[in-house]
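hey can u check if this looks right to u? its 412 residues, i copy pasted from the old doc so theres a chance i mangled smth
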Amino acid sequence: MTEPKFDLDVVLSLFDGISCGQESLRKAGISTRIYLASEIEKYPKQITRKNHPLTVQLGDVTKVVADDLPHVNLLMGGSPCQGFSFAGKQLNFDDPRSALFFEFVRLLKECKPDFFLLENVMMKQEYQDVITEHLGVEPVMINSSLVSAQNRKRLYWTNIPKVRQPKDKGILLKDILEDEVDESYTHSDKAVAYMNRNSEKWSNGKTRKDIYARNENQKAICMTANMYKGVPYNCIEVSKLTEPCSFKEVRTEEAKKLRKEHREKTGKDHTPFRAKKLVPREDGKVGTLTPGLNKTHKVLIVPEATKKGYTEIQDGDCFDATFINSKTRRGRNMKDKSNCLTAANYDYMRYEHPTYRKLTPIECERLQTLPDNYTEGVSNTQRYKALGNGWTVDVIVHILQGLKQQTKVVAA
């Protein structure tokens, strides 16, 4: 006997992007007669057209009116989140992009759909409460890590019944990696310039060779996210150390002078000119800041806005190299999973000693549980951006299971 088929007559997707919602319906076995999509971006629409050519594009959401549409069975969307995100400025509804949420509310009231689904980022409780008040349901937080290799916490407001946490599929980053990756994605410890906007020189005009400071034993000096002689340091690979080392603070006369000038100018005893270097320990033991740092320990030091000033990337770890010189970035290191894909942050690397490489577009598609090459046909930059704005398909598939008990069943 053929499995029953579930139908939705009309689906309206706002802020449709690359139509992850439509792909989720397909994967969930829920067919639609008409799929209406509101999207204004050129490249996401191009990707949608390639994968779902029958999509009816409506354009600007502010110009979509319920009187022009048939009855909508399911209204879905992920309104722009820049004003809510903890990674942004948190302007909340004052940000015109996040204010588009009210277009979702407007069409929810006008269309009176049978079901609705709204997705958004983790946000302050006060913003969350506003959305909850307008939609009349409490959100469910689901981390994509349960169904994919990506750590991605999102809130879902829906009246689809019986939405629970999905079972953990145990998918790890290693499970979604391509077998062969073009060398253009790979960088070595010599690629520090790449991490600084592809420049061969730093902002002070010094070359990479000039700023690779060495101590008397030719051991690599490891910098924190702070400044050393006014020069910001990036990822420095220190796995070539042949003996146990510990960190020792370094202050040159020039650094002391800059520190003094900074204090006199600002009135604050800040530490923007502090650096730490790796020096051999006389007792042969390993320093507490770097437990296990020895000749067999493979580690990459990446700046991070924490008290320690950096994070240690182990062989096989994923790390966020977006805005590598940022003084506010946290959570750069991710073990077993990928960092959360976003439209602005897509310089995600995997450390594969002695090199590190960028995750490929196909690997990012797998992180969003999309078919391989779903976004093919536009530039890699646009592919990364579109994927960061998209949904994790298997999370939506899980939520849509509740529709199967509600929609009309047509025996095949």
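The chain has two domains: 5-167+377-410, 183-359.
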